[in-house]
Amino acid sequence: MSEQSVNEIEKKELIPAPTIELDAELVLEPIPEQPQDRTKVAIEERPPEEIDLGDPELYFNRELSHLQFNARVLEQAMDENHPILNRLMFLCIFSSNMDEFFEIRVAGLKSQLEYNREKNGPDGMHPKKVLSLISEQAHKLVRRQYKILNDIIFPKLAEVNVSFIRRTVWNEKQAVWVKRYFRDNVLPIISPIGLDPAHPFPRLANKTFNFVVELEGRDAFGRENGLAIVPAPSSLPRLVKLPDDVCEGGDNLVFLSSIIHAHADQLFPGMTVKGCFQFRLTRNADLEVDSDDIGVDLAGALRTELQSRHYGSSVRLEIAENCPLHIVDSLLKQFDLEQQDLYRIDGPVNLSRLMAVLEMVDRPDLMYPPFSPGLPRKLASSGGIFEAIRQRDYLLMHPFESFAPVIDLLSEAAKDPNVVAIRQTLYRTGSRSPIANALVEAARNGKEVTVVIELRARFDEAENLALASRLQDAGAIVVYGVVRHKTHAKMILIVRREGVDLTRYVHLGTGNYHAGNARLYTDYSFLTCNKEIGDDVHRVFQQLTGMSKELKVKKLLHAPFTLRDRLLEMVNREAQNALNGDPARIIIKVNSLTEQRLVQALYKASQAGVKIDLIIRGICTLRPGIKGISSNIRVRSIIGRFLEHTRVYYFYNNRNPQVYLSSADGMDRNLNNRIEVAFPLQDYKQTRRVKKELEYYLADNTQSWILQSDGSYQLSKPRKDDYRSAQRVLLNELADSTR
Fold first, then answer.
1. What distance separates the 2 farthest-apart alpha carbons in the chain?
2. Average per-residue pLDDT in the chain?
3. Domain Polyphosphate kinase N-terminal, which positions (predicted)?
4. Mean pLDDT in residue range 306-319
5. DSSP states of 89-129 as a string?
6. Is 488 a catalytic residue?
């Protein structure tokens, strides 16, 4: 699940997964990165002293590992533990993830080739070879996606009276109703474009829904070109619900594509429509704002770049599988694409739009039921949140525990006459979110409000520009961080006058300040008024909003300055402890792991005998299970109801455990090119709690995928009556209660 794609999926009880008998075509084929088995054997045959830890054979390809994560998301649509509408949702998430993968990752590889800037990663694979393997594996995944949709999801939904009615089976009443709908709602706003010298091929925006129509005959002007393009306006819903009076019960939906197909002849009166075929073009959607050309106006440069995002270079063509070859070839030539960029589709293009079904169909019995996040009793008391934080630090794990205290902290600060200043970083939050509303209120109430907004949060740039304008209009000071380093840290600093003293209240988190995401992502929140932590956060804000030399911080680890090197030191310390004969242990839970120096340090620690568990949701370039190199490293990916998003770094430290929670993944960009923070847990109970919660993930045998040394992932299979789900355990322990 990508961070932008997840929708709410909630369920009370875990159902033991039955054995699912699939036909051969529905058995997921492993996605090999390279001929991994031969590579593993070749490495293991070398003496340890001859193994170079920079050897490309020790690393999986980043992009292919990313594609494997998408494959694991797709498999959730096959998991009968999920309610059927949630299984449909996972299918939609896979589609959205693949869109972003092509818009950013594939587009980036193509750009390298186009501009002769090929750059091999640690795996040593040339971008052209990577693109070829991506095409091979992505085609398999897309075929599987549509087979799951057509052969499993649609039939199972029909069994519970949620039906997608194809135009070939419309009854007379339905056909009449659809014809009227087309006449009143589609025909007036659709603009067919015949192709001739006076009507060149239209410039189609990224991921828009279109039809290519094959025509026969001459029009009123004597034109006889044979092809036309019909763009479907974004204002038209992709799904339409049929009224009850033309159906026999249940929820009955028709696709916009079916409606247009059925009435394409009305778009070209007097012409013969030989065929109507839906298609969609994916373009490069990565923004490239040259930091050397920005001058003093990053916002202005970004606004200019946003206008061109929809018309980047072509990277993928999706088209109906029955479209004739000569039309397909014509479109490929038009978009300057090759055969490997073509995806023939057995169903509607852009399946992510099927997410609308969750709102169109009022069937809560087909989805996870809601739950009430837990809340520590003292945070729920009427004494106020400042009083509660003065008494003790709080560690919350969302969504199992409520995000409300974070919103309450800002809301109370906005109204409290003793609060004199608020500083906050924002990456993804929404211009009208509760967090934004509280900051606006605080600024209007005369507080000194300073907000560091990262405008370049991918696909949230326009929303962040709107948020910046709203805050500035309210009187807040808005800065955009550091030009060459994205601000990804999650920090709130509130300065409150208490008697003759000023007290700093702090929130630090692993996730974004988005109340909706806090119901869907697993993240930690830390609330404290610890003086040293407050001083450190103050210094980090000084560096972000002003200009200064690197300021030393005592407790926090701060990228790009100290975080990477300190993590390497702690990994190396565990290795040394193991060499000294002391117990050594590392557990890291992040979204992705790609930073080569960190990977090499983990290899060395494994060679020294350190037991290492990595819980990596998405991309992992480290190859586990290689004798003499990584035989002490286990890598697992948890894919389930909630999007795993916590970043935790645990080190046993010779019986004195150290735990850091962070906004940073183990990636090059996070550790070297972003503003990130990691904060320590200094309370023994909190340290022990996080360790216990990590152990839940390590014990998970229902939603845990184990990375093999050949690059494939194997889903854990629980023994009979031994079903363990980390997310389910955390729901039971933390939600539905006030403690």
1. 90
2. 89
3. 59-164
4. 85
5. HHHHHHHHHHHHIIIIIIHHHHHHHHTT-----TT---HHH
6. yes
